[in-house]
Amino acid sequence: MQELHDAPLAPLTTFRLGGPATRLITATTDAEVVAAVREADDAGTPLLIIGGGSNLVIGDKGFEGTALRIATRGFDLSGTALELAAGETWTDAVARTVEAGLAGIECLAGIPGSAGATPIQNVGAYGQEVSSTITEVVAYDRTTRETLTLTNAECAFSYRHSRFKEHPERYVVLRVRFALEDADGLSAPLKYAETARALGVEPGDRVPAATARRTVLELRAGKGMVLDPADHDTWSAGSFFTNPILDDAQLAAFLARVSERLGPDVAPPAFPAGDGRTKTSAAWLIDRAGFTKGYGAGPARISTKHTLALTNRGDATTEDLLALAREVVAGVREAFGITLVNEPVTVGVSL
Ligand SMILES: Cc1cc2nc3c(=O)[nH]c(=O)nc-3n(C[C@H](O)[C@H](O)[C@H](O)COP(=O)(O)OP(=O)(O)OC[C@H]3O[C@@H](n4cnc5c(N)ncnc54)[C@H](O)[C@@H]3O)c2cc1C
């Protein structure tokens, strides 16, 4: 276990933003993680859990308390059952399951960060979400002070949400268990039209899992969604806003605004989101509100490759980033009456 004081947090985030933590602990075993959490809780010290820092916006003033970096390791594959320690690097784990010829998480290739953070916002991309393959999550519960095993149902997964995100101060994920599929080296049926199109197959078809993974990585790289330290378009948290989910009344109001502003022939993206609700595209809203790729004059700008990613061009502060985010939220609200919600977790700041 390593302990540092007045430790800069910016280098631990993909935005490269945020001030220092009073104390930074790096834990490499589950026992060290639990001991550090208990110690902070006993002392009444605020605690910030950090995995890969790829979904964190930390304020310029930093974090007054204990930042706990989870650096545990463990990749155990037995047949189609996979158990990952929270600190495992997610992209490596995906690559290894594909090398083993297994299907289920191949389209989640290229998502930065740790395995332990994947259940927090139920990470998803290109037609897959971890909620489809997670069987159990082992977590330390800070309320009962016990380690428990939660079933998939108990994780209460939904779009970019879970029980863990609902109670952000309560659980520390230690291990995540998955049930993958042995489909003779083939992928899961492709659900995402863009991936199927790129592969020249139909949605619902299977392709070799390695091909699906490679194609997703190529599509993501073209959008600045694969980390590349040399490319400021990837100094981000990926998508900065979640896709809005609208009920019938909200959808009707939105469609009226679109018609009024852009003309009656313009149809915004609309996908069924369960319970009779409709998901629209945050990227479309941002773009149509006038914030196109590369928007911004300061050190924080919209990515030149993807409208949904806000980026640090190198010398931004968190306040620069938040100013841009607030401008986008206000512009979209004014144009379409929809208030975008940030996807990354904010620490010591809010939009
Ligand atoms: C270029 C880029 C592309 C991205 N693409 C996608 C994408 O396609 N789909 C997607 O869903 N996300 C995407 N993201 C967002 C991000 O990668 C994921 O949310 C990822 O799971 C975050 O993992 P992390 O370890 O970096 O979490 P961190 O940023 O370190 O933490 C995020 C939150 O989870 C908490 N946390 C982390 N680990 C634990 C733990 N073990 N126990 C309890 N709480 C914990 C933290 O306290 C914090 O609240 C992208 C980000 C970037 C930079």
TrEMBL record:
Its EC number is 1.3.1.98. The active site is at R160, S239 (proton donor), E343. Its cofactor is FAD. It catalyses: UDP-N-acetyl-alpha-D-muramate + NADP(+) = UDP-N-acetyl-3-O-(1-carboxyvinyl)-alpha-D-glucosamine + NADPH + H(+). PROSITE patterns: FAD_PCMH. Pathway: Cell wall biogenesis; peptidoglycan biosynthesis. GO terms for cellular component: cytosol. NCBIfam families: murB (TIGR00179), PRK13903.1 (NF010478). Belongs to the MurB family. Cell wall formation. This is UDP-N-acetylenolpyruvoylglucosamine reductase.
